[in-house]
């Protein structure tokens, strides 16, 4: 018997009417009963799309190469690196207010379909952090690379090739300092701007070699590959700026190693702290001395926000990076009120069943996991053990929705969900979801 031929539209140019935004930044279109995920389109446009990735299933992927009927929301791309094919500013062609509407639509769609929150409107509100609506120069943490020629730049979309056109996300002082550092070929470079105006540059060998070829490996394996790379990576060689980076929020100053996590947008840390303070104040039936877990807590940014609202709280900061955890004590007094725990959250929860050592199960949990979210097992444990409120900060609408869905299925009540435009000119959006325990009713 002849095997059925696989559909493969690769290389075909289709004329398509672009529909709504999809999770991941592409826009949906349809052709001959198949979905085409289009990069570089905007809702309502008629465009020519070249198909460049066809797995042969009910969908394929393409890139807009010519716009026949442009959207009024289309703008000249602000980013030369994006125009040259870099993967970062993938919504650089969309006006900022329209981009926030699209991000809010994706957030709402994921919250409804995956998060099982039926009450969400068609689009959730996405606010600019701290009223700071700059589309360029907002990034205070930049990771660049060099190729054979030693010229620093950012990676091409879905490739390990280097684009050396200027990246407009980073504060220009970071680019200047990186170029001045002249780190040589095949380096991974970290440029960080502290709140005191000092720029810190560190570098190490690239562990994922830069090549001319397209990288067609699946996104699903990206987190695993990133972890493997991190474990292979050498130590950062610090070449400019003081050894620690200064960050100030709400009157407290943190001193962090250059590779410790901090929110990349210059106004994000303060803005999220405000949101967390608001969510802590509204937590139902919260005792005056609550047990609080700040999971994936970094250097304790949100622990500080909790203590501002509930000074007698007993906070445990759980964080896997020792570099971040060591910085907790630079801003908060370590003692009975603040206990840093160096652990992966999964292992902390295994050890903490009952949690007698930390005053019992938590009243309040704040979690801010990396892009992949906390996962079903972590969320199931938190749903079971948390008495009052869970505040989930997540930078991927789908994984945030999956995590929230675990709580909703366990009878938790959504008290609010909103977005923050913390990654301008990209499809990325930070979401903050607040849910209340059935035990607190
Ligand atoms: C998005 S950051 C949030 C940090 C902090 N909440 C802040 O705003 O500064 C996520 C943090 O989780 C840490 N992390 C990643 N996976 C982890 C895990 N499985 N367990 C504990 N911490 C983890 C990372 O090192 C990183 O500091």
From TrEMBL:
PROSITE patterns: SAM_MT_RNA_M5U (PS51687), TRMA_1 (PS01230). GO terms for biological process: rRNA base methylation. S-adenosyl-L-methionine binds at residues 263, 296, 319, 368. It comes from the Bacteria. InterPro entries: MeTrfase_TrmA_AS, NA-bd_OB-fold, SAM-dependent_MTases_sf, U5_MeTrfase_fam. Keywords: Methyltransferase, S-adenosyl-L-methionine, Transferase. Residues 207-235 are annotated as: Disordered. The active site is at 395 (nucleophile), 395. Belongs to the class I-like SAM-binding methyltransferase superfamily. RNA M5U methyltransferase family. This is RNA methyltransferase. It comes from Dietzia natronolimnaea. The lineage of its organism: Bacteria, Bacillati, Actinomycetota, Actinomycetes, Mycobacteriales.
């Amino acid at each position: 018997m002849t095997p059925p031929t696989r559909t493969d539209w690769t290389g075909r140019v289709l004329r398509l009417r672009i529909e709504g935004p999809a999770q991941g930044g592409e826009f949906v279109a349809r052709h001959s009963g198949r979905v085409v995920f289009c990069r570089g389109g905007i809702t309502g446009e008629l465009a020519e799309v070249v198909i460049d990735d066809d797995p042969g299933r009910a969908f394929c992927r393409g890139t807009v190469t010519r716009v026949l009927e442009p959207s009024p929301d289309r703008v000249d791309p602000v980013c030369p690196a994006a125009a040259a094919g870099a993967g970062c500013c993938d919504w650089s062609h969309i006006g900022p207010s329209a981009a926030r509407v699209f991000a809010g639509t994706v957030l709402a769609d994921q919250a409804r379909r995956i998060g099982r929150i039926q009450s969400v409107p068609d689009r959730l509100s996405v606010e600019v952090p701290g009223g700071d609506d700059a589309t360029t120069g907002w990034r205070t943490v930049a990771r660049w690379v060099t190729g054979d020629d030693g010229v620093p730049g950012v990676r091409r979309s879905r490739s390990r090739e280097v684009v050396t056109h200027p990246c407009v996300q980073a504060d220009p002082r970071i680019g200047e300092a990186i170029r001045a550092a002249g780190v040589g070929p095949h380096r991974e470079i970290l440029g960080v701007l502290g709140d005191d105006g000092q720029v810190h540059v560190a570098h190490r060998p690239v562990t994922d070699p830069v090549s001319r070829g397209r990288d067609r490996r699946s996104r699903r394996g990206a987190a695993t590959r990133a972890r493997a790379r991190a474990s292979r990576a050498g130590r950062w060689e610090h070449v400019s700026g003081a050894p620690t980076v200064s960050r100030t929020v709400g009157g407290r100053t943190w001193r962090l190693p250059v590779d410790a996590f901090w929110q990349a947008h210059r106004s994000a840390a303060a803005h999220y702290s405000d949101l967390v303070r608001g969510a802590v104040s509204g937590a139902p039936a919260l005792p005056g001395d609550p047990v609080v877990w700040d999971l994936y807590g970094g250097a304790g940014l949100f622990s500080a926000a909790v203590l501002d609202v509930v000074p007698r709280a007993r906070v445990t900061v759980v964080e896997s990076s020792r570099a971040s955890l060591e910085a907790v004590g630079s801003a908060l007094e370590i003692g009975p009120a603040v206990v840093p725990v160096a652990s992966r959250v999964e292992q902390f929860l295994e050890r903490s069943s009952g949690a007698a050592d930390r005053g019992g199960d938590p009243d309040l949990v704040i979690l801010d996991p990396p892009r992949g979210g906390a996962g079903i097992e972590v969320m199931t444990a938190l749903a079971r053990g948390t008495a009052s409120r869970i505040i989930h900060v997540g930078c991927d609408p789908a994984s945030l929705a999956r995590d929230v869905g675990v709580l909703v299925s366990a009878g938790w009540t959504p008290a609010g969900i909103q977005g923050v435009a913390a990654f301008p000119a990209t499809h990325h959006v930070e979401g903050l979801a607040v849910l209340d325990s059935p035990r607190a009713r």
